[in-house]
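Subject: for your reference before the review

Hello V.,

The reviewers asked for a structural picture of the protein, and I figured it would be easier to keep everything in one thread rather than splitting it across files. Below is the amino acid sequence we used in the manuscript, unchanged from the supplementary table.
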Amino acid sequence: MAHVQLPELPEHTLSFVVDGRVRAPSGPEAAEEEEPEDEALELAGRVVLGGPVAFPMTAERYPDVAAYIEQEAAHHRYHEVHLSVTFVEKQDGPPLHSVTLRVNLAAKAPADQPIAWSMAPARIDDPSQRDVQFEIKPQLKVAGIEASIGTLGGNLPGSRTPFLRATRELRSDPRWELKRTKNLPLDGTQRVVLVVRADAAAAATMAVEVTAATRSSILRRYRALPTPLRLAADL
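And here is what came back from the structure prediction:
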């Protein structure tokens, strides 16, 4: 197994547009909330996207899994993709309720569509699991590891609401969902790593869309769309 070297990521402060609103059920305890003049300003400067940074996975970079990379070379190429999301809390706005990183992978037909071959972290429930390292396991599967816990994910209590959850692995539209919990607010920086498997004979593209929500007496949803990243680029 090989440890993943975490590159520095260019950061982009995201601008959001309002994507929807849902008012909480009314009741005697529900307080009236003044509507902001520009709802998008509530998230101004509060979510920062790091990356994406992607580079080819080669036998030279990962000699421990060189045999698998060379075996796959005639049919598939693999890219290691790094992202992060940083939360900036402000005193004069509602707290962030959730943020979702949506990745869209594509290639021109008739090539096989690229897929999220592996994603890490798979799930985070506990504050001690947030500061993780990553390693490449056999068959280019990436895993988040924490010194005292082992591999993140696996048999974790299903009844608990996770702070982070990776979904849609082995598809072209993977995502990470981060949600404020009782023990974990949305603050600080969270790193994630994705291994993309693409057709060896075709270029692949990747776009990242970020959606967010705040919650008070009104649940507001927002979306932002950064510039697409071309995986075939020399990064």
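For the response letter, the relevant points are probably these. The chain has a mean pLDDT of 81. The helical segments are 66-72.

Happy to draft the paragraph if you're swamped.

O.
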